[in-house]
C-alpha cells in the first residue's frame, strides 16, 4: 500500500513537471552558450557565443566610398556564431557555371576566364573576428586592406596550430571561420 502511494505521488509529480510551460525569461536564461578552444592545446579562443540558426547575409558595405580603408561590417553579430554549410576556402576549382566562389564572396574567374568555386571544407564555425582572442595572422593571402580566405587557414593559436581563416579585406565579408577539425566546442562556464 505504501509503495502504491509512493508510485502515484511520483507519477503526479512527473505529470505536473511535463505539463509546466517555462516562461520566456526562463528559456532565455537557460540558452546554451559555447566557447571554442584550440583542439591541440586547449587554449580558449572565444568568449561565450550563442548559436544562430544560419550564417547571416553579409551587410551591404560600399567599401569604395568608405572614408577609411578597412574591414567591412562583420557578417556575424558579436556574441554569436553560425555553422557554414557550404564549402569555404581552397581548393578553388573550375566550375561549369559561374556562381559565388565561396558563400558571400561573389563570382571569381581564373586567368583563362573560367568560373571558380570552392571545394574547401564544410562545417566551419563562422564568428565575428572581434570575438576571438589569442590568434595571430600567418600565411594570409594579402589584399589591399586585410586578409583573404583564398590561401586557406591563416590564423594561428599561441601553440602554433593553424585553427582558422580570417577574411578581413575591405571588399570582402568580415568573418572568421574556425576550422571544426582544429577547434573544440565547449559549454560556457
How far the N terminus sits from the C terminus, by CA atoms, comes to: 45 Å
Strand content: 15-25%
Spans of at least 5 consecutive residues with low confidence: 1-30
Which strand order spans the largest sheet, edge to edge or round the barrel?
Answer: 2-3-7-13-12-11-8
N-to-C SSE string, H for helix and E for strand: HHEEEEEEEEEEEEEE
The coarse silhouette is globular
Give the C-alpha Rg: 22 Å
Give the oligomer, counting copies of the same chain as homo and different chains as hetero.
Answer: single chain
Helix content: 10-25%
Count the beta strands: 14
pLDDT averaged residue by residue: 81
Structural class: alpha+beta
- Number of helical segments? 2
Largest sheet: 7 strands, mixed
Task: Describe the protein's architecture and organization.
There is one protein chain. With 189 residues, the chain is an alpha+beta fold. 13% of the residues lie in helices and 24% in strands. The chain has 2 helices and 14 strands; from the N terminus they run H-H-E-E-E-E-E-E-E-E-E-E-E-E-E-E. The chain has helices at 2-19, 24-29, and strands at 34-38, 50-51, 80-83, 92-94, 108-109, 115-118, 125-127, 136-137, 141-142, 147-148, 155-156, 162-167, 175-178, 183-187. The strands form 4 sheets. The chain has a 7-stranded mixed sheet, with no helix packed on it. Strand 12 and strand 13 (175-178) form a beta hairpin. It is globular and about 50 Å long. The N and C termini lie far apart (45 Å).
